[in-house]
Design a protein that fits this description.
By secondary structure, the protein is an all-alpha fold. The protein has a single domain, classed as 434 Repressor (Amino-terminal Domain). It contains four helices and no strands. It is elongated, with a radius of gyration of 15 Å. The relative contact order is 0.15.
């Protein structure tokens, strides 16, 4: 049973890592589709340009609140990232 739990934990962690990459890639893709620069999205989402850049470069994983702000700045819903 312990082996099963360890296996489940590995799957959850891998999904988290993959989701992090997807969100980074989607943030950049959606931003470019809207014709926005990082600084434009930062202003629209009330986040710093460096934070947006770090998200896009997969250096940080945005909180749900930050993801909601980014989605709003892009004129989208946070669910569009998943």
């Amino acid at each position: 049973m312990l082996v099963f739990y360890k296996y489940c934990i590995k799957i959850v962690l891998l999904n988290f890592i993959v989701s992090s990459m997807d969100i980074a890639e989607k943030t950049k893709k959606f931003r470019k589709q809207k014709g926005l620069r990082i600084i434009d999205l930062a202003k629209k989402s009330s986040l710093s340009p460096s934070y947006i850049s770090q998200i896009e470069r997969k250096m940080v994983f945005p909180s749900i609140a930050a993801l909601q702000k980014i989605a709003t700045g892009l004129g989208m819903h946070a669910a569009d990232f998943f």
